């Protein structure tokens, strides 16, 4: 063990000497490793940051949550002309599933409606995202209120003029968001009572932030827009009970919908069952492919860096030929000489990798400061990966020079060095 520690110490000293004695040559040689590590880790950090941001935007919904609609959230073999003929899911289908779908924690109905202005007194908030929902939505999504409550089933069914307001809207219309509670605001030309204020959520990459939204009972919007409006894209959102057999549950849901719509056995489903788990799997697949492509592209930079390390090591072997001959004449074994140069190559590569990581870290800080809506992260995993790749490049690049050094004849080495 002591001999290996001594080899590492000597190799480190030789590597530092190579850096200090031949600054320009070493800098140019290590530049490839630095750029390669910077490229790989920067791309991995960017993809990880994107994945975290998207999944963070979905984190309020359980991955088992199901969205039943006439649209597919992913690729499908059904041609577009046929999908366009699919009927929208209806409020009656929602009521049917609510009564007849076992092992279900909550079911709600929602439609998409255009943004509208909302006003209080002399103040007005423009382009407010309106979210018509059933009362069960509060059980499906992890909503947090700073004051008040969500509307109940009675209010949702009767279409009571009540609403739950996002933090940003409350802040724009009232000096203090919490003071909005029980106030009457105007929406759709009628008065609505504010019964709840949502906690501040912040910006979101995946869809609009709830800070700029208001939630109203879905039957209010149904009375305004009607049930035959293809532009409202109705959806039934379902949350199964925990520990339910997912495949069996989806099969049961499919059977219930086919039965209700009277589809014959040979007819295909005219609806889509979209599960968030499938969407997150799709995100994982896309980010995995991005990582692979970027690794291949960045690998060319590392290839250049590897040649640079090999160049340093061949020059180092040539400059220290006399020293190698003396070491071998004093009893140093080939293994000792081999490890000495291998460690030196690895140390040089790691130094280049560390410089690349520093640049990545500084880039993430600058990029995060420049963009308010997105945070770049450099994970410990990616940092360790960068150092590991650097070490591997150094090991591969140093093998041939180290072998050539270990096989030198001591007498010839001393004579050549002289």
Structure notes:
The protein is α+β, with helices and mostly antiparallel strands. It has two domains: 2-57 and 281-417, no CATH class; 87-270, no CATH class. Helices cover 56% and strands 15% of the residues. It is built from 14 helices and eleven strands. The protein has helices spanning 2-21, 23-58, 80-83, 91-100, 137-140, 153-158, 167-173, 218-225, 246-261, 276-319, 321-329, 334-370, 380-406, 410-417, and strands at 66-69, 104-110, 116-120, 123-133, 145-148, 162-165, 184-187, 190-198, 213-217, 235-240, 272-275. The strands form two sheets. Strands 3, 4, 5, 6, 7, 8 and 9 form a seven-stranded mixed beta sheet that branches. Strands 2-10-1-11 form a four-stranded antiparallel beta sheet. A hairpin with a 2-residue loop joins strand 3 and strand 4 (123-133).
Rg, alpha carbons: 32 Å
Overall form: elongated
Structural class assignment: alpha+beta
How large is the count of helical segments? Answer: 14
Proportion in β-strands: 15-25%
Total number of domains:
2
**Average pLDDT value?**
82
Given as residue ranges, the uncertain stretches (5+ residues, pLDDT < 50) are none
Helix content: 55-70%
* N-to-C order of helices and strands: HHEHHEEEHEHEHEEEHEHEHHHHH
Mind summarizing the main beta sheet?
7 strands, mixed
Separation of the first and last Cα atoms = 34 Å
Q: What's the β-strand tally? A: 11
Features:
418 residues, alpha+beta, 2 domains, four-stranded antiparallel β-sheet, 56% helix, ABC transporter permease, MacB_PCD, cell membrane, Macrolide_Exporter_MacB
């Amino acid at each position: 063990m002591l001999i290996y520690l001594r080899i590492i110490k000597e190799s480190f000293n030789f590597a530092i000497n190579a850096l200090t004695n031949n600054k320009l040559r070493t800098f140019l040689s290590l530049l490839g490793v630095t750029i390669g590590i910077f490229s790989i880790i920067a791309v991995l950090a960017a993809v990880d940051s994107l994945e975290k941001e998207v999944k963070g935007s979905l984190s309020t919904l359980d991955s088992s949550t199901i969205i039943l609609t006439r649209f597919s959230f992913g690729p499908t073999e059904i041609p577009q002309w046929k999908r366009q003929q699919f009927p929208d899911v209806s409020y009656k289908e929602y009521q049917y599933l609510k009564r007849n779908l076992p092992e279900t924690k909550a079911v709600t109905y929602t439609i998409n409606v255009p943004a509208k202005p909302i006003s209080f007194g002399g103040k007005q908030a423009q382009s407010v995202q309106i979210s018509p929902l059933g009362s069960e939505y509060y059980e499906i999504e992890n909503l947090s209120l700073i004051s008040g409550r969500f509307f109940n089933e009675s209010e949702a069914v009767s279409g009571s003029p009540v609403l739950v307001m996002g933090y940003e809207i409350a802040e724009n219309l009232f000096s203090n968001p919490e003071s909005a509670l029980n106030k009457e605001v105007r929406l759709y030309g009628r008065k609505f009572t504010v019964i709840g204020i949502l906690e501040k959520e912040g910006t979101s990459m995946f869809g609009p932030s709830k800070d700029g939204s208001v939630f109203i009972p879905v039957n209010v919007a149904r009375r305004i827009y009607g049930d035959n409006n293809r532009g409202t894209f109705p959806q039934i959102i379902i949350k199964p009970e925990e520990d339910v057999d997912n495949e069996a549950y989806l099969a049961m849901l499919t059977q219930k919908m086919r039965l209700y719509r009277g589809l014959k056995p040979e007819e295909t489903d005219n609806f889509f069952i979209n599960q968030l788990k499938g969407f997150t799997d799709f995100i994982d697949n896309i980010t995995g492919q991005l990582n692979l492509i970027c690794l291949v592209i960045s690998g060319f930079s590392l290839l250049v860096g590897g040649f640079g390390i090999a160049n340093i090591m061949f020059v180092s072997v040539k400059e220290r030929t006399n020293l190698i001959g003396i070491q071998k004449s004093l009893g140093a074994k080939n293994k000792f000489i081999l490890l000495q140069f291998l460690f030196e190559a690895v140390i040089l590569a790691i130094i280049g990798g560390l410089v690349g990581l520093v640049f990545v870290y500084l880039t993430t800080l600058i990029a995060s400061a420049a963009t308010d809506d997105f945070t770049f992260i450099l994970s410990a995993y990616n940092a360790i990966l960068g150092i590991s790749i650097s070490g591997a490049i150094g090991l591969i690049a140093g093998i041939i020079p180290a072998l050539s050094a270990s096989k030198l004849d001591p007498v010839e080495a001393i004579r050549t060095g002289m």
